[in-house]
Structure formats: C-alpha cells, structure tokens
User: What shape does this take?
Amino acid sequence: MSDVGGDFRRQLPSMIGMAGMFVATIFLAMYIRPWYDRAGLQAFGEAGASQLRFIALELLMIFIFTAAILLLAKYKKEWVIKYGIMGILFIALLYASIPLAHQIMVDDSVTPFEYESTDDVDAAYLTEIGMDQYLDSIRSNESGELVNTIRLMQWGSEEPLWTTAIPHGNVTYEFSELVVVPGPTSVTINNGALIYTLSLSDGTIESTYNCFEFNSQGDAVPIIETGCIVATKTDDALYIIDAAERLHRYNTFENSPGVMTKQATWQLPSEMKVIDVLVEAELLDDTHLLLVSENYAGVVLLEPSIDDPPNPLGQDVYKPAQILIHAESEAGFSALDVGYSNVAEKPMDEADEGKQLIVLGTNDGDVFAWSYSPLESEVFEVESAVSLYNFASGIRDVRLTDINADGETELLITTDKDARLLYKASMVQRLIIDVPEGEDVAVTFGETVQDIENDTIHFYATVITSSYLGDDAQMVGSSYATSSGVVDSTMFLVGGLIIEDIPTIIGLLFSLLLMILLYVHSEWYVVNTVGILVGSGVIVMLGVSFVPTLIMVFMIAAAVYDAWAVYKSKHMLDLADTMMNLNLPILLVAPQDSDYSMRTERTTVHDIDDEAEEVQPQIQRERVVAKSNDAMLMGLGDVIFPGMLVLSTLQYIGGDNGLIMAMTTLVGSLIGYSILMYYVGKGQAQAGLPLLNGGAILGYIVGGLFTIGMAMFQFNISF
Assistant: This one.
C-alpha cells in the first residue's frame, strides 16, 4: 500500500527518492544472491521450488500475520506487536547483513585452470563408455582388406585396455562410417555391411551378422532394401533400423552363430531419422533402445514379437513402434549421456539395480533429463530437477561424472565456451573450465595411476575432427585431440554454507546496532536502512526458493488481496496505521523535505484518505510537526514482490538471457510504479501491488519473448 499527500510537483523528489530505494533494495538482493546460491538456501528445498502448495502456504502465513496484527491492535496490545515484530526484524536483518558482510569481506576468487598437454591421435573417435573410458577405431589396409581396429581407451592412458580387429568387409563402401550402439555389457558396431557385437570387458567378438547375402551369381544383395543403418544386439535378437525409419527384428540362435531369421517390422516416427542425422544411440536393456536424432529423441520399446503379419497385404504399412518417452528440439540435439543420477538420494553402491539418468543437450542450450528405473512401475519419468532451459547459448556435451569418487555423481555440461560442473543434487556450479573450440567434444574427469599416487584429478577435453578430400566430400580420415590438466581445490567456486567468524560477527553487531537505533531513535533514515536490508533479505530468500512461474502466481494472488484489503475491507489501511504509529520498518519513507521527522508523525493513513475523499486539503490533521510533515510511504511488500520475480529470474533462467529478463522485469515494475505515482499524486491511498506486480510480470513476459520464448513458463510445476 502506498500513500502520499499534497501537490504533485512538490511530491516529485519524494517519488524519485522512493524509486531509488525501490531499485537499491532489489540490487542489494542481487548482490547477496551468490551467497544464497552457493549455500543452496531454498526455503523449501530444491524440489519445493516448483511445488504450488508452498506458495499457498506463503499466502496463508500472510493472512495469519495480518489477522494477528489487527487483532492485537484491536485489543490495545501494541507492545506485543512492537516487540514481536522487532524480534522478527532482527532475524530478518541477519539474513541480509551476514551474507552482505561475507560478500564484501570473503575472497571467493579461484585459481584459473590451465591445460598442461595436448595429445593428437590419428583415429576415429566412436563413443564414451562409462565415466572415464571411450572407444576409438583405426582403419588400415592389410593385404588388400580393410580392417577396423577397435580400441577401448581410458582418458589419461596411452595404452588401450583392449584391442579387437574386425574386417570392414569387401562389399562395404570404403569410406563408410562405423555406427556404434553401446549397451550395458557389450557394444554393437555396424558399417552397413557387417554387424559385430563386442564384449566391453575384454573386446571379445560375441557375434557377427551380415547385412548382405550372395545370390547364385555371387553378387551381394542387401537383406534390407533400404540398408542397415543402426543395429543393436540383445540376448535373443538383432534389431536393425533402415533408412526408411523402420525397425526390424531378426531372431538369433545361440547354437547357430551368424544365422538370423526375420520376425517382425515396426514403423518408427518419421521424426526419428537415423541416416546422416543420428546423434547417438544406446541400448539401455534388452527391451529399451534410446535413439537421439537431430531433432527428435526417444526410447523405443523393443518388443519380442508382433501380432500383425510382418507385411500385411503386401503393403509397406507396419505397426507403429511404441515410443515410451520422447523430446523434440527445433535447434537440434547435440549431446547424450546415460549414467547414475546426480540427484539420486543414495550413492551408487547403495542404489537400486539398473537405475540411471538420461541427459540430453541441445544446440540452443536446453538440457532434457529422464530418470530410468527398470524395477519400478513407471520405468521412465521426466527428471525436472535436472531439466534446464536456456542454460547457455549452446551445449556441446553432457556428462555424468564422479569427480570425488564418492559414489555421488555430478553433471558436467560443456557449453559453446566452457565446461561447468553442477555439483550433485544441489546443481550449484562449482567449477568452470574453458574448453577448446570444436563442434564435437567430449569432456570428463579421470584418475590415472599418477593421479592416485599424487592424490590429483585430471580434466580431459577431447575435440573430435574429421578430414575430407575432394568435391564430393568423401571422408578419408579422422582424428581427435585430447587436452588435459590438473584440477585442484583452489579452482573450485566457493560452495556450501559459508560462515566465517569475522564477517558473521560484523553482520551480527551491525544488525544489533540498527535494532538499538530503531528502538531509541526511530527516525526515517534508520527505518529506511532497516527496511532496505530486511527487504533485500526477504527478496533473495524467497526469490531463490521458487521458480518464476510460481512467483507470478504468488504475485497475482497478493495483488488481488492487496486491492481488496485497501479498497473493499480497508483493513490494510488499519495495518499501515499501526505500523506507522509504531515506527516499525516494514515500510519505506521518502520525505519531501530534509527536515522531516518521522518521530513526530501522528497522521494516520485513514486521515489522508478521508481528507482526499472530502476534498478538504486544508483540514487540520492530528500531527505534531517540526517544520514539514509530508512524506511518501510505501510498504515493503510493494518492493519485495517485484524483487522476488527479478531474483527468481536470475536464479532459474540464468545466463545472459536471465539477466536480460531480470532487467526487463525491473523496468516493468518501475513503469508500474510510475503509473502508481500518477494516481497517488492526487492524494489518495492506493493499493500498490496491482500496478507494481502487473508491471513486473509484463516486463518478465516481454523479456522472455525476446530471449527464450515460451520456455519462460516451463518449470514442471506440481502441487
């Protein structure tokens, strides 16, 4: 609720001063936000940030607080109000003064990471295996026959863990690439002619199948007209996807190696393209295949059989494959990883068997995440705690890693500039490392023998390149370069709740001094100092606790309540009278003259409102004045609500887009403030939240439309 009396021109300095305090309170909240962010101090935890019931609880507490104050005032218990609120204010002051002291006094600078070496390898990088291993391939010509030497490598080690040579096949195009589909214990490698399944433990060839058969004239004839594009081997079947997005099941037989029998065909969604635009594929288990194409990602159910005939009526019409969960991206998917969830409640050695997290990155900076729980009734679910929108302008790689080797994983996201380590379930950024340029990269942490001996950790960034020759862009070779360096504790951003002795003592003493001044000398500048600090603390505490969508719901509900309480029931005016007479700093005061004294103020908000209604500005007011008695009053709630949306935008949108949207939100609230001042300049008490909150919300929407689009509302809200 905002109130002002007198001539508009005379009130202009007060209006500007109030706007300055409005902005200062929000900027102070922005300044201390990193302390809250590092400490993970959400009021209702990470999961509560998107749950509607906690917003309802906040509204309920506002109603209870207002009712309690009015009830105590009715029964002349002002001393209970004064000392009760003084105690609450002291605690609220600590929420601002202690973080502020830490932000000013604690040096949280970090040592920059430096790469120590770069190794170039003339081999084709294939895919990651686990957290610190990967497959590559060296193609050679041995006595006129092309051979692919598959190697399981470990980052930080020059020698492979195992090598296996597999023929490329004489019926295969010389420059055809290997399409690799890793699984839980094996990997299937396909070049369009030959399909090999290798054991991940030692590289043993477990099975070999041909995509061609020879006719009576000795000519090679494809078994699938549109080719073997992607293949994966389960215990009793070989599944092949062709260029027409059809999934074929071939039964295999343990006693007859190399023999397979066609059983069924399913049609994949047209968006799930695999030829030329396949990003990655992974066999999660014998019944679930994860496919990530350029614009479509999903989990395909690998059914054991089909009720319909394989090709009914001789037509190319097939039963649609079951897609259990999917995601789409217009910008395109760029990265995939499957591993143990960084938001899991238990460490890996205590987890349920097979429970994993699927993480996808996109070219425009989004992160999609699904939980995979094969032993539960809901096998796949969206993991909202890990799903991030507009995390960066682009994402090159996502990795689930365990930098501490403690069984609890972290999410490592490589943007177009750097790699950022999001620490465990808190998802707080703990480490930022520059990554060399390159569209296709893989990054991870690894422990070499030397690391174990020296108690160090290496960071590896592998940039994958391909070489081409000729106008037809035929690939003649590929290579990758791995840069590495040691990560130590001085490179980590400060994380966790930081409470150091000297800043804490200074914050405590400063708060105590302000409370003493408030009690013995409750002048307007003391009230404003306390009000700005309290407001900033509440803004950041609630702003980091809720996603922007819920903050807007909160703001709309509070604006409706504020309008009803000011214009209809008018009990908000009674509340303001009580607080003003007690000189309690849950409001801001902008004097019109420098010699204004709040300690001698006795006018009530009802006096000013009644005076305006009677159009009698000359009526004698019940005031004791020194010289000038005019000032503008604004409740802290009028600053806190728009400020919460600004802070929530910084917290949950983040990056450059988050900063832009936060500033448009602030500008929108200031526009709402200007309109509010136009009306209150007429001398009537006004409900501030409808205009202030409305302006802030419109500013958020405008900023969102110019940056991230409708993703500004997508925060997986639940009750």
